[in-house]
Write a structure and sequence with these properties.
- Keywords: Membrane, Transmembrane, Transmembrane helix.
- This is Conjugal transfer protein TrbI.
- Pfam families: TrbI (PF03743).
- InterPro entries: T4SS_VirB10/TraB/TrbI (IPR005498), T4SS_VirB10/TrbI (IPR042217).
- 38% of the residues lie in helices and 17% in strands.
- The protein is of the alpha+beta class.
- Among the domains are: 114 residues, Lipocalin (Beta Barrel), CATH 2.40.128.260; 60 residues.
- A hairpin with a 7-residue loop joins strand 7 and strand 8.
- It is elongated and about 190 Å long.
Length: 373
């Protein structure tokens, strides 16, 4: 009794398995018996010449355009017309050649010779310009052949020829008893220099001066006096005094006029340099006073304006005018002290040299006239 349900269950399972196997076998048999479907393109296929590749049919070419041929009209010209046309072409060709060879500038009447000279110069320059253009390195766009031509012209301008090196002066025989140009005469100041006022100078020769030729003959003895002047006109920033010597007075009373020979310091610089007074205390003191005057005047005017009412009185106007005028007068006086020039002082005993700018010739060596020769 207990095994019957088991047998029934096994039988049901076997029936289900058998039904499934039958269904699968029936579907497989139907699939094998069905013919294959073939899809055919409705468009006709054309076999091309491409190694068995089937290509679509080619597009038919468009219809060719029909070109109507125009009739050729033959014009027969006479012999005279051909000659005229040929003559006209020759004239035009000649005009073009003349235009190319003609100068770019119009020459004025009377300048035919100058025009020929310019054309000749242009003919000489043209090969140089062409050579320079041919030698131009590639890629140099800023190359200017005219610059090289101007450099060549520098040598032409620098060539002075024989006349440029020949002076109209020739070598002259010097005198034995002579002091040549450029010789220095050592001296010492006896008087001093103050640039506030112009004045004269007195100095004394500190060394004997001999002739230039051999240096054996005494021409200017030590102790001779020098007479000169100085320039008292001084500008702001100047530190040297300009001096000119006019005369030499010998110990025996004889003299030689020098003209205006300059003086130089012992270092060889022109002019004398010793003490310089720039008046800084005076200038800055003036500036301080100017600021005080300006401030006082402005304060007085503002004070009067504040104290006065809308109706100005005579006293108010008088006070304002007086303050303005006093301030202006003080400013004008103080303004002059700002532009004061420096004072140059050269003390006595200053050593210097007189530079000869002319040849000094003597008849004989120096010998005092009073003691005889």
């Amino acid at each position: 009794m207990s095994r019957r349900p088991m047998y029934i269950g096994i039988g049901v399972v076997l029936l289900i398995v058998a039904a499934l196997m039958y269904a699968l076998d029936d579907s497989e048999r139907k699939r094998r018996e069905k013919p294959p479907e073939v899809t055919v393109d409705e468009r006709a296929l054309v076999a091309g010449q491409g190694a068995g590749v089937i290509l679509p049919p080619p597009t038919p070419p468009p219809p060719a355009e029909v070109v109507e041929k125009k009739p050729v009209v033959v014009v027969v010209q006479g012999e005279g017309e051909d000659k005229e046309a040929e003559e006209l072409r020759k004239r035009r060709r000649q005009m073009l050649l003349n235009a190319l060879s003609s100068p770019m500038l119009k020459q004025q009447s009377g300048g035919a010779a100058r025009a020929e000279g310019r054309q000749a110069a242009a003919a000489v320059r043209m090969p140089r310009e062409q050579d320079g253009a041919a030698a131009q390195p590639p890629g140099s766009e800023n190359y200017d052949p005219a610059a090289n031509i101007d450099k060549e012209g520098f040598f032409t301008r620098a060539d002075t020829g024989d006349a440029g090196w020949l002076s109209r002066y020739t070598r002259e025989e010097g005198r034995l008893l002579e002091i040549k140009t450029g010789t220095v005469i050592p001296a010492v100041l006896i008087s001093g220099i103050n640039s506030d006022l112009p004045g004269v100078l007195i100095a004394q020769v500190s060394q004997n001066v001999y002739n230039t030729a051999n240096g054996r003959h005494l021409l200017i003895p030590q102790g001779a006096k020098l007479y000169g002047v100085y320039d008292s006109r001084v500008v702001y920033g100047q530190e040297r005094t300009l001096v000119a010597w006019n005369r030499i007075i010998f110990p025996d009373g004889s003299s030689v006029t020098l003209g205006a020979m300059p003086g130089a310091d012992m270092s060889g610089y022109s002019g004398f340099h010793d003490q310089v007074n720039n008046h800084y205390v005076r200038i800055f003191g003036t500036a301080f006073l100017m600021s005080a005057v300006i401030g006082t005047t402005a304060y007085a005017v503002d004070k009067l304006d504040k104290d006065s009412s809308d109706d100005a009185t005579f006293q108010d106007e008088l006070g304002t005018a007086l303050a303005n005028q006093m301030g202006s007068a003080a400013m004008a006086i103080l303004q002059r002290n700002l532009g004061i020039a420096p004072t140059l002082e050269i003390r006595p005993g200053y050593q210097f040299n007189v530079v000869t700018t002319k040849d000094l010739a003597f008849a004989e060596p120096y010998t005092p006239y009073r003691t005889g020769r």
